[in-house]
Amino acid sequence: MNSLNGDRELIFNAIRKFENTYGSTEHVNITTAPASLILFGDHTHYNDGILLSAAVNRVWVVVLRKRKDRIINFASANTDKFLSASFDSLEQIDCSEFNLLRRFTKMVHDLDYIKFGFDCVVSSNVPDCLGLGSFAGMQVAFLNNIKKVFSINVEDFSLIDLIKKNESAILGKISNQAHHYTAAEAKDAKIYNFDLRTKLSQHINFFDKQLNIIICDTEEWLVAPQERCNERVEECEIGVKGLRLYIWGIKNLRDVELDFLLRHVHMLPKRIFNRILYNVNERKRAESAIKFLRKGLLEDFGILLTESHWGLSKDYEISSENSDFIVEEAVKLPGVVGSKMVSCSPIKSVFNIVDENFTANFIYQLGNLYKRKYNSELKFHILKITHGVKKIATKDMTALSN
Predict the structure, then answer these.
(1) Tell me, which fold does domain 211-383 have in CATH?
(2) Which of 49, 179, 369, 400 is the 20 to 30 A CA-CA neighbour of 394?
(3) 0.85 exceeded by the pTM?
């Protein structure tokens, strides 16, 4: 069962839910896709940024079977939510749990990619704190499933563009294609590097040392986090318009260099200047991080990662007191490479790159520090870097049923 990559129980529960809901599992197709996590380049994607991301071993499972009529059925193995609709009524029905999948289904039907309905079950072990990275895994697993089931003869990048279009209608400009491509194309033990301007990507080895990605999850939900992030997008757009008075022909902040920005510091409101400063510096950090990865400079990579957090906190102003405290204390602990908030998460949360040998000590020490400070428990998610979307083979499905 090695090909199931530790997701056996999750897949089994999804299959069992499908059978209980729809009567049998004959002719089903099963796909899994991981959540993604942005390491560098947060909030530069709407300025043709350079992003480094990782697929982590928390996944979405989609079990799907084509019907002979036009009925669409969605069921969740996690919450027991159920949605049934026809193509004609998909737009009228609102169910937050399935909204992204419902809208995507309507989109591919309108493009004449699918003409019949389907029965579907989704299941996940992705923590809510992964936010946009979780949405990416869900949609990529679903996309690859319906592509197979309905024999959709369209290039993957065109379908991923549909995910972006679908997501943007709900989430706004914070929708990030780097998440989608990471969930689709990532490889084991490698960082995914995606250039939003050139659309070129590469996989880079994530050092030789045994490392964990540990998320510190405060379980404190933020108020309207998407609104705050979209507000930063608008501020950057204002900055671009202002800088165009001094640089002819710039498309966005990808075209702005730090020395030019610093020479024009007095030409912009301080708040707008700080947003641009973060964006320009983060692009430089992403470029440096690629070099550090290639040279195996783990310590330099970690320092840069923590610097990126403080850029988000001080210049971009989207962090929180809790997250800043976690980062400040985490980097003092042995075995910690670097620490940074999870961007665009609905929950105050921080990810840390930690030497595997120091994981237990890290959780114990930081958990105690946080409890003394806030009288509250941290929840820890210990993650590994994994591969992208995967179809579950028939032999594996048979083994699960036995």
Answers:
(1) Alpha-Beta Plaits (3.30.70)
(2) 179
(3) yes
